[in-house]
Amino acid sequence: MSSTEIDSVLISTNSTIFKDCLTPIIYRKFTNRSSTNPKQSSDLSIPISELSEFIDYLSDELFPTLPLPLRQLTYTGKDSTTTPETLTALYPVQTLPHTFSDSLISYGIIGDEDDAGKIALVAIEEYVEEAGKPPPIWKETKKDVEECEICERRVALTYHHLIPKSTHAKVIKRRWHPEYMLNSVAWLCRPCHSMAHKVASNETLAKEFYTIEKLMQKEDMQKWAAYQSKQRWKGPRRG
Questions:
Q1: Average pLDDT rounded to a whole number, residues 196-207
Q2: The whole model's pTM is what?
């Protein structure tokens, strides 16, 4: 994976993080609208069933306007220029896209552009906090996992290095992934762990199938998961 591809993946990932931060902010504004507040009255309305698509639109309008260092933010790149205290200078509300503020005003979710700027800055602050978090200590994530991440059985689990350790030097040299991703793991039962290493070489796993989602795009892994999910666990049951 080239550096350009890495940057593209990172921006895509961060875009999702940003939308996740924006969603509860817009939801609360939407559900707390007051018909008695003239600034929040509108002839337009959004069914709650369509709110998710509306938030997607707002996020897609706002995120690309962030400065590139913010869109490419990682915990290794977070510094004093991306603290919440410096965000106003880094992202002046004057750069807020009119489509963002106009849409919120038109649907009576906010009263004016100042409110839009406040929403944007809160979302950016939360995004910086989330995107700048260090990755978990992967081996300690087991406490949050009860099922094999492939066959979804509640059985004894092992940790699978999504980027095999034998490839780490090559991954860094060829810039396939950022260094912080090297120790990412998935929790798998022993049969699924073994199968993961049989469907592709370690190098291919590192380069192309470095998440469970990508691994499960392989047809042979989908068939395996369907088979293995029906197998009875003969050891002590977890949970």
A1: 93
A2: 0.57
Q: Angle 121-26-63 (CA atoms, 0-180°, nearest 5)?
A: 50
Amino acid at residue number 158:
T
- Rounded Cα distance, 104 and 30, in Å: 9
User: What pLDDT, in 10s, does the model give residues 74-118?
Assistant: 776 555 455 555 655 666 667 789 999 999 998 888 888 889 999
Instruction: Give the pLDDT confidence score for residue 11 in this predicted structure.
Output: 86
208, 211, 213, 216 alpha-carbon torsion, rounded to 10°: 60
| Phi, psi of 39, rounded to the nearest 5 degrees | -70, -20
CA 215 to chain centre: 18
Distances (CA, A) of 217 to 11, 182, 183: 22, 21, 22
Other Cβ atoms closer than 10 A to 90: 15
Q: What are the residue ranges of helices labelled H in the chain?
A: 3-31, 51-62, 68-71, 87-90, 98-106, 113-131, 168-174, 190-198, 202-208, 212-215, 219-228
Per-residue pLDDT tens digits for 50-84: 888 999 999 999 999 998 888 888 776 555 455 55
Cα–Cα dist 44/102, whole Å:
12
CA-derived radius of gyration, the chain: 22
